[in-house]
Amino acid sequence: MLIREQLGGVMRDIRTSKAMTLGDVQRGARISVAHLSELERGRTEPSSEIIRTLADFYNVSQADIYLEVGTRMSASDQLNGRFSTDDLTSLLYGAPIDAEFGESVSLESMPDFNNVMPSVPDHLPELFDVEVDVESDARA
């Protein structure tokens, strides 16, 4: 199972749960019906900009979209007998976190949040009329 297939299914399920047609999304998010159809069928890999645009249009968080994709990928892996041999939490953060027994986790074992990319608004919907004073930003 490919990520684009699961992502397309999630996007289709969001749209249909909101009782929207592809045409509704085209008019609201300004993405062509052909591209939306290809995305929802898992035939094309959507850009991060398209995912963000659709998340904003559907009023859902990008993180929730990716969490649902991850849940579906995990279910697909289990159904197909694919199991990882390495614990990703251990690989990334050290010792595994034992949430079942409520074991506390020290801040030292948490990820380096300074290494997380900040959220930079790379696009603003047309409904936001924002003027940016580049000169004052440069002096800051």
Describe the structure.
The protein is an all-alpha fold. The chain has a single domain (3-101), classed as lambda repressor-like DNA-binding domains (434 Repressor (Amino-terminal Domain)), CATH 1.10.260.40. Helices cover 51% and strands 0% of the residues. It contains seven helices and no strands. Helix 1 packs across helix 5 (62-79). The longest helix has 18 residues, at 62-79. 9% of the residues are buried.
Please provide a brief summary of the model.
By secondary structure, this protein is mainly α. The chain is 51% helix and 0% strand.
Q: What is the top-level CATH class?
A: Mainly Alpha
CATH superfamily: lambda repressor-like DNA-binding domains
The oligomeric status of these chains comes to single chain
Structural class: mainly alpha
Average predicted local confidence, pLDDT = 79
Shape: elongated
Q: β content, as a range?
A: under 5%
Task: Fill in the CATH topology.
Answer: 434 Repressor (Amino-terminal Domain)
Number of domains: 1
Number of helices: 7
Proper CATH architecture: Orthogonal Bundle
Secondary structure layout plus pairing:
Layout: H1 3-17, H2 22-29, H3 33-40, H4 48-58, H5 62-79, H6 88-93, H7 134-139
Helix pairs in contact: 1-5
List keywords for this structure.
434 Repressor (Amino-terminal Domain); 140 residues; mainly alpha; elongated
